[in-house]
Amino acid sequence: MPSLRPTLSLDRLGSVIAVLIGVALFAGPFVIYRANRIVAGEGRMLTDALPVPGALTVVIAALAVALCAALVRGPLIRLAAASVGLGVIFPAVGWSAGFVTPPGNTFARVSPSLGFWLLALSFALLAADALTRLRLGPWARIAAVAVAAGAVALLLVSGAWDGLSLLKEYANRQDTFWREAGQHLWLALGSMIAACLVGLPLGILAHRVRPLRTAILQVLNIVQTIPSIALFGILIAPLGYLSAHVPLAAALGIHGIGAAPAFIALFLYSLLPVVANTVTGLNQVPAAVSDAARGMGLSVRQRLWQVELPLALPVILAGIRIVLVQNLGLATVAALIGGGGFGTFVFQGIGQTAIDLVLLGAIPTVALAFVAAITLDAIIDLTRRGT
User: Fold this and answer.
1) Which of 93, 246, 248, 292 is 20 to 30 A removed from 316 (C-alpha atoms)?
2) Could you tell me the domains of the chain?
């Protein structure tokens, strides 16, 4: 007997997304208008933030996406709908900045508000759900990230967002932004590389010499429990003493505040995931494989490099992924002790009650962590397929 089940059925996640879209369209302001960068602003609903044709386009597109999210289960259709929604609202918020700002006014600021962020969140959730259902391979996931990054770059280069307060903050601090971006990456990546150079041999040692394993992991666990601000503060005194009494240390830029304590703190935080995952990965190598390698006449060093480490590589890379995502976030706090990075804008914005300056530091940090997580996940999948 043929099935009478309809091809359209209510999707639970899609229903939640549809509700969020409804709230965004009819209950939340699309943008916030401020007379200048510091004063409190006033919300502008979608109908006041855009010309009538633009507002209607956003409403129609958003309602179509809501219906698709709630009723259609096909992942390709859901992904296409989410892409259309994102492709409509991102240029629209830039358009609204020019529409809301009075002609010739250079002091006014226009920022995305609750309505825009809810729409962006809803469409992003729908896209993520569709990509999950598609079960993309590692190369396809990397390609999806590249396409998304290319779309954002195109919007930035086209000037569609130049009227937004966030881009005005960037224009006023362009040189500083890229300098702090380089400092942020140096702190995150440099401390990760240093942790790998130290943590991998330490993990191998902990795996080989079992009495040392518990002691090493317990010490690193204690370090991991220290709050980042406290660890930065603990390092200030010894590094300040070292800088004052060792001329070479001062010449190398090691001081009580600045990048040195931030780098060392991030390095210490990075050791536990690298060491623990190295031990776990090596422990998971089947004993039969090690015995077979030994039977083939391979030395201890040869078994380690040719058999054990390649098999443990996916688990080790998972630890490195944790470290990189963690460090990209923690490097923001380094600005509190003069370490630089995107945290400089975050804490300046908090001090000035300028939310767009906060976002200038927060958004790149989140974006870098997101891209790093997806890219390393794909690399881990590729190594698993190769083992």
Assistant:
1) 292
2) 12-135 (no CATH), 174-386 (1.10.3720.10)
